[in-house]
Each structure stands twice: as C-alpha cells, then as structure tokens.
Amino acid sequence: MVIFDQSQNSSDRFLQWRISHPDSFVLNIRGNSLMLHRASCGHFDFKEKVTFAPKRAFLNKDDLDDWVRQQNNKTYKVCSDCKP
C-alpha cells in the first residue's frame, strides 16, 4: 500500500504513481466515505488546483480488501466511470 495524505508533495507523488501504475487500485478518502477507482480513472485528471483528498493505492485488489476489513469493516463505493 502507498499512502497519499494531504502533505505538500502528495498530489505530485500521486500523479507519478498513476503514470507508473495505471492498472492499480486507489481508494479516495473523504471523511468516512471511501470510493474505489483505477489509478487511470479520469476523475484524477486534475486540470486546475483542487483540494487533494487522502488516498490509499494498492497494486492488487486483495490487499485493498484486506486493508478495508482492518478499518472496522468500512465499505467502499465503486466508481461508476472506471468500474474497477
């Protein structure tokens, strides 16, 4: 798992991760809400300055699901655009 928090360089690091791992899985975290995307999802095509939400990136879905279970069995929604 790779953690992208709200530190200054997280946005740049995440954009590099997307390029290097386009088929990876990304959980976008907004409060208690989790949304699952592919790293290549168009929702991450930042064209202007945006508020960067924390993210967790995984190379495989099994690791992602294990992490989610460890978070008090939170559930996630699946992006309807990239359908990971």
What is the compact description of this entry?
With about 80 residues, the protein is of the alpha+beta class. The chain has helices at about 10-20, 60-70; strands at about 1-5, 25-30, 35-40, 55-60, 75-80. Strands 1-4-2-3-5 form a five-stranded mixed sheet.
**Helical proportion, percent range:** 25-40%
Low-confidence stretches: none
What about the largest sheet? 5 strands, mixed
What is the strand tally? 5
What is the oligomer described by this structure? single chain
Order of helices and strands: EHEEEHE
Count of helical regions: 2
Question: Could you give the topology of this structure?
Answer:
Blueprint: E1 2-4, H1 10-20, E2 25-30, E3 33-38, E4 55-58, H2 61-70, E5 77-78
Parallel strand pairs: 3-5
Antiparallel strand pairs: 1-4, 2-3, 2-4
